Input
Amino acid sequence: MTLPRPISTGSLIGGQWVEAQSEIDVINPATGGVIATVSNASIDDCREAVRAADRARASWSATAPRVRGEILRRTYELMIAEHEALAQLITLEMGKVITDARAEVTYAAEFFRWFSEEAVRIDGDYRRAPGGANWLLVTRQPVGVSLLATPWNFPAAMATRKIGPALAAGCTVVLKPAHDTPLTALAIADILVRAGAPDGVVNVVVADPPGPAVEAMLDSGLVRKLSFTGSTRVGSLLLQHAATKIINCSMELGGNAPLIVCSDADVDVAVDGAMLAKMRNGGAACTAANRFYVHSSVMEEFTEKFVARMSSLVLGDGLSPTTTLGPLVSHAQQQRVASLVDGAVARGAKVLCGGSSVTTPAFGFQATVLGGVDATDPMLAEEIFGPVAPLVEFDDEAEMLRLANDVDHGLVSYVFTKDVGKGMRLAEALETGMVGLNRGLVSDPAAPFGGVKQSGLGREGGHDGLLEFLETKYVAGNW
Ligand code: NAD
Output
């Protein structure tokens, strides 16, 4: 099949595209067919990628911040110039609807623009010690070789959200994208090279199985930073592994977002927000609304309007202009979502729309609303990662807040109320790293994205995202 742009399918190591002995098939979730094969990097390839990053480290960290920023800025411009081809590539390998893929390319490119501006804003401090005897000089230095591991659900943005700040800070990187969706990452690597990233500054390896490859790189003794986005299960394993070499870790892990519709919410605003919070990426987002707590006084109106919107979605191939909901990424994910829905229905939930898998597109699942879900239903403890919205009715705000916080995750929550004071009090009390107040979307390259509890450690985006790739050095001096 012809891809929307040429892709170098080898590993990128030290500026060279290196072919491997074995290959990985990339599958189009809309058809189940193979669209490309890419090199399956060997353990030796992975170790060599880390060595290449280490060789490039000194000169890249010594490169003027303005020069690093200009390379990132050119990367942004090249991504925008290739906007449509990149969007099509994302849809082909991941399945999301093309409008979502276009939005992702814009969002992903913005990380390069934002961090091109941040590269020149690495600050320090210079003060007299309180005792007056000496000076305190504080500088920031790049952490060093950074291993970046990313998931399949945002093949472009999860990579650029790490590469942008790492390069701005003066770190060299090895990117290991999910092997389900490697093509977009390889395309972005090619763009970075064309934008002027020197050999070895950006390396990419795709590996299946990923575990041994990532562990070999962490064990190399050369990696000083692990920036991971993915499931809480794998994040926890990698934190344990990184502990043996005390590697600096940033973790963007799973979510289980509550979406709260208060009695005084503007229901139309809440429905718009719910559609965005639930259905962006077909529900396959860490930020996806996963548990809908709706006040009894507005439940009927909210349900009627929300079900109408969900029922109107057209499930199909993400590339078709009439499609508004794409397939899930794999057969396994389709089966997982189906079993979550079947379990909730067996326990008494009502299917208000959707409820089933389909075979066209291959890994499709209908937009589904479940009513009458009990507040203690086990489904509410799971990250659904699909187009399914369980509705739970509440009367007492304090009890709703307790339920909203009674989960292991804490990435994001959404609150809908016309009373901004109440909204701010709920935002304070919700145990999540981010809150959408009368808004179904929080992601912004200029803002610190991240979670608390088992949703992760550290932040990406904003100025905080840059700090994750910097170490503080302090010099005590007399002069
Ligand atoms: P995943 O944890 O299975 O995989 C993520 C990355 O880790 C991939 O590169 C994968 O190849 C690699 N990996 C898998 N097993 C590994 C192992 N044993 N050792 C080393 N590396 C391994 O996650 P996924 O299924 O690709 O993505 C979905 C998850 O990502 C969801 O839980 C979602 O919430 C989360 N996510 C979080 C954010 C965030 O910013 N918090 C953003 C997007 C996705």
Notes: The two ends are 67 Å apart (CA to CA). The first strand starts at residue 11 and ends at 13. Residues 149-154, 158, 176, 178-179, 210-211, 214, 229-231, 234, 237-238, 252-255, 286, 383, 411, 451, 456 surround nicotinamide-adenine-dinucleotide (CB under 6 Å).
